[in-house]
Records
---
Amino acid sequence: MNILLLGPQGSGKGTQAKRISAEYGIPQIATGDMLRAAIASRTPLGLQVKPVLERGELVPDGLMIDLIRERLEEPDAADGFVLDGFPRTTPQADALDSMLREIGRELTVVFALQVSDEICIERLLKRAREERRPDDTPEAIRTRLELYHRETEPLIEHYRTQGVLVPVHADGSPNEVFAEIQAALEQVAVR
Ligand code: ADP
């Protein structure tokens, strides 16, 4: 199963991706985690993207596309993956479409996690207090949500057109959201 999660920051993408990964035995590919790991180990990529993440801006498409192309070639992704954080822009989505086409694969389902900005901001400020992520400052949070609406939200239409979009109510508890995802995955499995 090749699964993609779309949703604003604070919609619970990471939480749900981890649960899908554990339940179905497919790797979670979380670009934010990959970038933070690169920053922590001071790789050339990490040094380049550190200030971008701190400002809450988007890493250039070319860098992200190369990173994902390499990651999808890893053997653990051969039987499926759950992508969390990529694509975030139309050029990234187009690149993913052609990458998958090249290797004869397609997205099984794209979940759009739906939740209001108010709830997202509340959850992100809570995470900022608990985890002290450098990009969870109020300014960076505002930038990220604006960028989500401008650059990433149009992808919902992109995948609706492809017939793979499944909207999910993401304002409930993690268990409630996961139950909705599992119910949808069962439908996909019998299709
Ligand atoms: P959040 O979803 O809360 O913003 P992430 O951990 O998914 O957190 O991403 C953190 C940061 O990493 C983003 O603000 C952005 O700077 C960068 N990033 C992650 N994925 C992408 C992507 N696909 N394209 C551009 N930048 C990205």
---
Amino acid sequence: MLKGIAASSGIALAKVYKLQQPVLDITKKEASDNEVERLEEAFAKTIAEIEAIKERAALNLSAEEVAIFDAHLMMANDPEIKDQIISMINDEKVNAEYAALTVSNATISMFESMDNDYFKERAADVKDVMFRLQCNLVGAIIPDLTAINEEVVIVAEDLTPSDTAQLNKNYTLGFATEIGGRTSHSAIMARSLEIPAVVGCKGILETAKHGDFMILDAIEGAVYLNPSDELIEEFKEKAEAFKAEKEALKVLINEKSVSLDGHEVELAGNIGTPKDVAGVIENGGDGVGLYRTEFLYMDSENDFPDEEAQFIAYKEVLEAMEGKKVVIRTLDIGGDKKLNYFEFPEEMNPFLGYRAVRFCLDRTDIFRTQLRALIRASAYGSLCIMFPMIATLGEFRAAKKIFDEEKEKLVNEGVKIGDNIEVGIMVEIPAAAVMADRFAKEVDFFSIGTNDLIQYSMAADRMSEQVSYLYQPLNPAILRLIKMAIDGAHKEGKWCGMCGEMAGDALAAPILLGLGLDEFSMSATSILNTRKIIRSLKKSDMEELAKQALSLDTAEEVEELVKNVLK
Ligand code: PEP
Ligand code: MG
């Protein structure tokens, strides 16, 4: 048994599908008689594979994403590259894979050294296509997620957003990754896709083999390889019980999130793409408390998404929520969130570096485009905009000023906009929590981002499993910062939400209710369970509980206290 972090609840039993890129060891050899013939065959196979991937991808992905494969096909069909490889085989009498590698490296360097961004980006396509060609020459297999046609649990180092976008939920019953924590983006994606996941499972890549049978216990955070029949039976029963429990919660879909003594809170859902809204509605969400717009930017292949593409996405979400509140976060890029078409500066600590609102205040052209799209979309629902990673009042004021300018321009252009756009900040840097009373005078609302607030308060990288023990939402230090934010907001008559993972944590809910949190925004799948908890508690009792929790010394003591109450 291997231990990891239960990142997306559930149980899966299936064969292991190991997602690992082959490592090629290509050396120079003397050409045999049929090198050109081998090369022709490998090209034909490469083209056929890309065509097949494109066809399958078209079933799940957007037209824009599918277009990448058109670019790959063009490259694989380009006679110039093939002719260069054939010339090298004939002139230098070397093996086809060596010639392919050499020509590929030269072509990649040529594209990379170009001044034109469009051509620079083509280097990644050449790399991709030529790697497939070399694999076909040496008989190595590149895993293709879209080709999975039986039930599997995916095992990988980590999953990128584009890997997760290719997952077919009918066959992918779960995944286990070597790295990552509860708040890494693959974990967040797993929750929005409702796929059980165990992350930070050290040793899984070395231990699990393709085709092994696996029990993925994403309730406890454990993985069993080739288990006994008894264990399989035991977990089949647990999986059934889990499903039944989920079913039973459905009676709460249309109920209010109200405590026994009549205090109502809002339970909203976190989304990454407009498609995720369906999950929020199905799970009875009172709104969207966090739309992470960076996925729109990360899914875009060649450039920052333009105003129109953004407007369409934001409008889709606002319309789907039919007037319920939608909180959209402006671009939170940098740290672990990279873009294909933009190179961030090399930094020692990217999580502490040039990212989120810091980037937006520097690249105001990109920021203004997003704000215009948001303001235009505001006409279609109830929009709140929030800025991520705000550390100082100066940053908020600068961002708000740009918002006001763009709003005024649009009004002068005669564009219809919503009449009550709220503008707030994420409280995810300790400095903002400490200064909450001052911020509250100027913002419309707060949303506490505990994933980062904990990371920065404890100085513990949220991606590192070695220090994941420091991810302590219930640590009194964190609770005090949360109290500062909530009290600060309320003193000025503003509302305070929370959109970090803590908002959906069953053990945190009683304390957050007691501290007076107004809105809890979480993975859609946690909404109904949180509603059940809120409906079983008295706010006045929880106020007492919160007071007690704040006076304790450690997270363990707080946990003990809450567990006793929930009993
Ligand atoms: C957070 O930091 O708590 C948060 C919600 O934002 P993200 O997880 O996207 O950094
Ligand atoms: Mg954050």
